[in-house]
Amino acid sequence: MAKAIVVGGGHAGVEAALLLANKGVDTLLITLKISDIAKMPCNPSIGGPAKGIVVREIDALGGVMPRVADETALQFKMLNTSKGPGVQSLRVQSDKIKYSERMQEICLTQNNLQVMEAKVEDLIIGENKIKGIILENKEKIFCDVLILTTGTYMDSRIMISDEVIISGPDKSETSSAFSKNLKKYGFKLLRLKTGTPPRILTSSIDFSRTKEEKGTDGKQCFSELTLATIPYDKQVPCYLTYTNSKTHEIIKENMHRSSMYSGVVKGIGPRYCPSIEDKIARFSDKERHQLFLEPESLELDTTYLQGLSSSLPREVQEEVVHSLVGLENAVIKKYAYAIEYDSFDPLDFSADLQSKKIKGLFAAGQILATSGYEEAAGLGIMAGINAYNYLNNLEPFILGRDEAYIGVMIDDLVTKGTKEPYRLLTSRAEYRLLLRHDNAWERLAKYGIKYGYLNREAYDRYLFQEKEIESLMETINNTKISSEMIAEYLKEKEYQNVKGTYTLLELVKRPNIRLNDLLGFLNIVVDEKVIQTCEIRIKYDGYINKAKATAQRMDKLNKRTLPRDTDYLKLDNLRIEAREKLNLVKPKTLGQASRVSGINPADIQVLAMYLKKHKI
Length: 616
Description:
- The chain is built from 21 helices and 23 strands.
- The mean pLDDT is about 95.
- The strands form 6 sheets. Strands 15-16-17-18-14-19 form a 6-stranded antiparallel sheet, with no helix packed on it. Strands 6-2-1-10-21 form a 5-stranded parallel sheet, with helices on one face. Strands 12-11-20-13 form a 4-stranded antiparallel sheet.
- It has 4 domains: about 5-45 and about 105-195 and about 340-430, FAD/NAD(P)-binding domain, CATH 3.50.50.60; about 200-340, Elongation Factor Tu (Ef-tu), domain 3; about 455-545, Arc Repressor Mutant, subunit A, CATH 1.10.10.1800; about 560-615, GidA associated domain, C-terminal subdomain (DNA polymerase, domain 1, Orthogonal Bundle), CATH 1.10.150.570.
- The two termini are about 45 Å apart.
- By secondary structure, it is of the alpha+beta class.
């Protein structure tokens, strides 16, 4: 018997298992193959818009993904640097072999964690509580808490045109029996679909005909524990090419042969990461689509062709690839394919990621209808924390939408649900100016110490940095500089009529004036991250305060608790649609009720009157 069992060794399972083991819980991690732990079957990268901020949040909670991403990166790139801080985020090109190997090493040497290769077939349940699992060989293993993180391995099928292979990603094992058994416990399963592009023999690509995409200079990293990263001049570049009219013509002529359009695919695919066939069909007015050529590993002579996900026949894939500039003579090492699989309906789970049907059963990752390694890892660490809290009769740990992208994601899933693989986007966060790359530790480090497994030494280093920020802000408020001293600089920034003496604060508030430049005139040397944080706080002070005020108003609704046993079907003043949807979601608060799809302000007024009438 193990105190806790985690089923699935992907990005969600690793974070959940390591969190529990680090907190002293006897934990068993069950995976189909140890060599596949934290595997990257699709994009060989970590981070990106919104996703990169999730990785920073995982770091503040004590998770492992950020550190390993830094350790095994081939390139670091800060995205959207020409835009505001609310949408800037880091992305690393990963060495997929080294990443998985490092994660395996960490799991296999972790105290309180046992790793087993096996296939789970069924659950053991008693009195609506999880009691254990049954393996394919009928062996029973008992536990007090279970976290399911099976990814895309539940009754999965790979599809290339009309060819269907019963298999998980990269022709690995799948589990159809487990998927069927979950239905008998009343779980509604969604049939979802995703896909992956072809891998190209790197030496067969003419990179001179494509555009080089380098990383970002300066120290870039996900983790505050990372002291050094690969030097900028040693980083591996990516490259950019585009589809063209010939590419589109080939795809249009063969659209009927794609699994997606021939009727072979039954699952619903991701709207924000469509196949190339879907792009051509949905965006027929576009003359071209960008494709990124990304290295997979220093140990592999393969390049990932991001943006060309497909389920066209192999011979058509050859034609499509050869129509691209720089890939006229390219050799395909692995063909693109679509994969469909079963997942839970996230509306069957609460905000602590625990099943509403079976106590002690938690889920995280793609089994909860998400997409992406980062979303999975974020859910994984939260499931681990809440499984620990469940074991110790502690209150659930739930992040607000104004506290973290992880909070936005979980609230979206368990409140609104989804019919397609959920992907985090900056546009999903109404408080994105509060949820920045630079302030993840400011937002979450206190929780990392309280609930997660944040390194105490790193936390103390963070507190020291906060003192440096406070000290610099005091300097900015009280230090004055004359316009004569920076006359040429002001002229260069098109401030020709600025005369007199100003505090640094007054100058930094102006557009195009950089704090780092002003400090240079005064020979004040401060850490670059400290300068960046202070500058953001100054330049966006009004917007940040406005967002905080909005969040505080919403917090009043979030503090008005709705009784869990409310039968909304019996609330006569509510619309029938509202009654049905509220009864399905069972929101915990008035704020959560307001975010349920199909609920309008009038419905919230009815609920508020109900609370008042019954003095709740």
